[in-house]
Structure formats: structure tokens, C-alpha cells
Amino acid sequence: MALTETAVDEVGLVARAAALGTRSIKTSSKLAALDLAIRCMDLTTLEGIDTDGKVRAVCAKAVQPDPSMADIPSVAAVCVYPALVPTAAAALAGTGVRIASVAGTFPAGLGPLDVRLDEIRWAVAAGADEIDIVLNRSAFMSGRYRQAVDEIEASKEACGPAHLKVILETGELGSYDQVRRASMLAMLAGADFIKTSTGKVGTNATPPTALCMAEAIRDHADRTGTAVGLKLAGGIRTAKQSWQYLVLVQETLGAEWLTPDRFRLGASSLLNDVLMQIAKLRSGTYQRPSDFTQD
Known about the structure:
By secondary structure, the chain is an alpha/beta fold.
């Protein structure tokens, strides 16, 4: 399968991402941005020591991030390993918070295809509303694009009613040209979202990478009429980063992408910093990190 794309202007991309990162936001707009960041957040726990108890605690926080501020919204989803989907499904029943699961032999995505597909089906049957798989970078980087597409298409079919997010692992792709090419490949194969990273490698989400992917989504929508979502994950820890990414998405894709159906922030430690900033903006004083539960 041939996959050709216009080369990315790296200098222009990096400069525009940097310029968007300097946009100032008024205090009232910051509160609205932080509220939106929470509503678009995938609260994530993907550790080998995760337990049923930890997942239930994360789910409770996902539904009510801060009991002292009852108007704080719930997050979009909780993201867990497949084995813990039943626990999350029971904890989140009736709340409106979705259940996302990494599947398909995450984080490498290099298990036998039938094993990967069976894991996806199992997670969906156990209650997952969304599945995050990893692009087969071995196939992609070798130029075996048809194999990479076929595997995403098979994963999409295995998802049934669940939405499919395809993780590009952008920190391993080597160039913005490759990030754009991988974005286009995943979208053509039927991804509902394209996602930056697993959070398991050294380089994760960055503003230039986010902009590159957002521009690919915009161009894909213009060509096909299909709107694909964007998920940024890995290394997003501060409220300032969250509103900078919101600005980037609005300026590139428009306000219609600023909803949980089209934009997500994958994070494990971001929520507490957002809550601290909201408390600061409302009261004028910072709270201590210890005032919030640690996930």
C-alpha cells in the first residue's frame, strides 16, 4: 500500500506551536478552560501494581474529583488494563463516566494478531466503552503499510460498539513527516481517535506533535467529511499545559473539537494540579498538594 503525504514544514510547525503556547488567557477563561480540561480527561492508571481497590478509588475520583467543590464535573473516562475493566465497570455503572481499556498487547502491540483481537473483544465484553490500541510500529517503520492498516481495521471490527483509539507512539516515529503519515494511516483505517503516546517511552506528547496530528485531523476531515478525535497523553502534568493544548486544538480544529467526543487528555497526575489551580482562581490562595487524594 502506497501512502504519500505532503512533507511537514518542521520549522513552521515548531514556531506555530511555540506561538500558540504563549497565548494569554483571562482569569474567567482559565476557569472555563480548566473545567473543560476535566470533562475531556481520561483519568488513567496503568501500573503493574494496580489493584481492584486502587481502580475503585480512581473511579470514585473520576466521578467526583473534589468533594469540597461539588460543581466540579466528572472526567470523560477511566483508563485501565483489561483485567481491571470489570472492576471499573461496576464502580462506574450509571455515572456517565466511560471505561477505556488499553488492549491488543499494550504497550508494544506486537503480540500475535489473534491474541490482540481476542483481548479487545474480551475487554469490550467486560464493559469497556473505548479501546486504546498501539499502532504496529514494526510494520509501519518497515513500510508495510497495508499490514498496519489491516490490523487497525481488524481491531476496529473487534471493538464492535466501542470506540477505537490508535496510539501512534510519536516519540518513536523519528520525524514529523512520519507522525503525519501515521496519523493519516490510522484515520484511513477507521480510528475514532488518534493518540500520541502510551506514556511508557521517554518522549510523549509535545505541542509540535499535537499540532502536527491536529493538522492531519483537519485535513482528513476536509477531504473525507469524517471527524476524528485527538487524544494527547504522556507527560501532561500541569494545568498550564492543559489550557495550552486547548488553545492549540481550538485554533487548529475549531470549537467543535473541544468536547469529550473529539478531544481527550490522558493523564494520571494532571487532575490534582487542575484542581489546585481552580481552588487558587476561586479563593486567591494555593492549597497544598496533600489536600488532594493521590492516585
